[in-house]
Amino acid sequence: MSELLAQPAETAAGLTVHGADAVDKAAAASTRAAVVANGVPGRLAAKDPTLWGPDAEAEAKIRLGWVDTHARSRDLLPQLAELTAELGDLDHVVLAGMGGSSLAPEVIARTLGRPLTILDTTDPGQVRAALADRLERTVVVVASKSGSTVETDSHRRAYWQAFLDAGMTEAEAGRHFVVVTDPGSPLEATAAEMGAFTVLADPNVGGRFSALTAFGLVPTALAGVEVAELLDQADALAASLNGERDNPALALGAALGAAATMGRDKIALVSDGTGIDGLGDWAEQLIAESTGKSGVGILPVVVESPTGPGATGDDVLTVTYGGALAPGTVPGGGCEPDVAVNGPLGAQFLAWEYATAVAGVVLGIDPFNQPNVTESKENTNKILAGGPPAETPSFTDGAIEVYAPAGAPGDLAGVLRWLVDGLGDDGYLAVMAYLDRFADVDAARLRPALAEVAGRPVTFGWGPRFLHSTGQYHKGGPQVGSFLQITGAVDVDLPVPGKPYTFGELQAAQAAGDRQALAGRERPVLRLHLTDRSTGVAQLLDAVGALRA
To answer: Residue 230 — very low, low, confident or very high, per pLDDT cuts 50/70/90?
Structure first.
């Protein structure tokens, strides 16, 4: 029998967590017992804002709506039905949003097999390709909680101009937009000026906890998802959240917290192939941005498959996720996880949110703020206003310009080996690719290749998407990261209508702003600029492959 199957599992509403009890028992004292003794299950279900201490109380008071937002979201269903009917022949749905506004809808659409174009980039090639795709049949869902997200505002401007250039009147162009935002945000007023449809979201739910709010439901409903089923699944699980036993979300949260306090503060997120596609990318933001602050945190590492490198290690908690399993089925999809989480997608969303909040109690941090996210944004704005910093490559190798810290080796293989060898016993490597995640998709192969070389956790993020996700952890979490930033030449740029910069200039400024933030913490940052993207990616993969030989 599988070791996981031999252990007690915790189940409610079709969601099962295997292995959490064993993780907790490995701690010096039971984390779950301490959490229960503090009344956390009942207090969290009752939205008690004092759970995370006095410094977090004000923020928690306005961020705990996720606990039961699935119930209030039922009020959206008639509006979504009317909106779908009103849009009629506009059947190509594009979601312009970042972080919490895009990651959950992407999981929902991928898992349930519905077409949804996600636009969460400033790469001009990727934006231009989206604009060229079925424009006359496109409805753009512009999603931003604050209403001031620069990437999303740029997408809105680009589509508005594209519709006008296609011969539409402003009134006709407005019909191609659906705006999802908080009540009273600047975007709500902009939507009214545009004549766009507007759906207001739950203001008491933070972005990364918003999967079951309008941010998750509007774009996916327009794409053809029966979103009421997701709400039903969450509602069924909600009845267990105030319980001390038969509460799989509590078991998961206690396991995450216990592991982190024992030094296993990296969590490998691995799909077991049983029907839920991409949940790791969503959970990555939820966990990293919620816990990575004040020098502590849990680093999520999204691993491509159960056999992918980087899923194990002395400081790694391996967690698989997937749909419901048949009785007696071995969890994990071929690997041997520490914890396996299986069940319906709506319940998964609520369980991971609850577990992250519990882990925040254990770690003693405020899971609802993101104190370091604005730093890179402020750097970006300064660069856009004053021009990019003058930089000279340390050396050039083929299609790759190398910008390395002083003292680093002067050849590509040497500088990559230097970066990997400097990780240490508790470090991690973050690969940050400011590229087109479709046209330059092969860049993602760097994560498993470097993980195999390093023998340490390696993460991969598309920029600027990751700035709304792991970017908080990079700056606020344990300062043990090393960073490989990859940028690429822009052959054909694209203006941001109404702004004095292009998408390419915005993308470059975002990359430079983040480099400044990381370098200011005296962390190793190696930038590789690809003067020819396809050639440079292939060259870089070959160079990493040579390190494995």
So the answer is: very high
